[in-house]
Specification:
There is one protein chain. The strands form two sheets. The chain has a three-stranded mixed β-sheet. Strands 4-5 form a two-stranded antiparallel ribbon. It is built from four helices and five strands; from the N terminus they run ααβββββαα. The chain is elongated and about 55 Å long. With 137 residues, it is α+β, with helices and mostly antiparallel strands.
């Protein structure tokens, strides 16, 4: 399986079908997880559109001088969480920030388990920007 779109779709379907992820979303947000391949950057998700996971292709490196084909697929984990911050051990804690990381870890486990045997998950890069978009995490 060398097709990047096919790989992305396989991973998206696995995340959508995960009973563990769906149960987590129901427990924490009383909604099913929505999964999308791509999104409209001009219309960011709203409260009723999350929890949301978005997959989109970044780039692919291949060719005779490339020892391995490299597929870079972006995965965004998006939550809408208006829970007021609470003090935990005298530290102000935003539950949305903690929850987006918990959900990201569950999603990563499913992705890692569903990478085809002919490929390997070589790298995971996590990027955070929870402050600018709150309550959208």
């Amino acid at each position: 399986m060398a097709d990047m779109i096919e790989l992305m779709h396989t991973l998206a379907v696995a995340v959508q079908a995960s009973t563990g992820i769906q149960a987590w979303c129901q427990t924490h947000y009383s909604q099913a997880l929505m999964v999308s391949e791509g999104w409209d950057g001009q219309a960011p998700p709203g409260e009723n559109d999350t929890p949301l996971v978005v997959f989109w292709p970044e780039d692919k490196l291949a060719g005779q001088n490339q020892a391995l084909k490299i597929h870079n697929i972006n995965v965004a984990v998006i939550l809408w969480d208006e829970t007021e911050p609470a003090a935990v051990d005298n530290v102000l804690v935003f539950s949305g920030q903690r929850n987006v990381e918990a959900l990201r870890q569950l999603i990563l486990e499913v992705i890692a388990a569903n990478v085809p045997n002919t490929l390997r998950l070589a790298e995971v890069a996590t990027e955070w920007d929870p402050i600018d978009q709150s309550p959208l995490y």
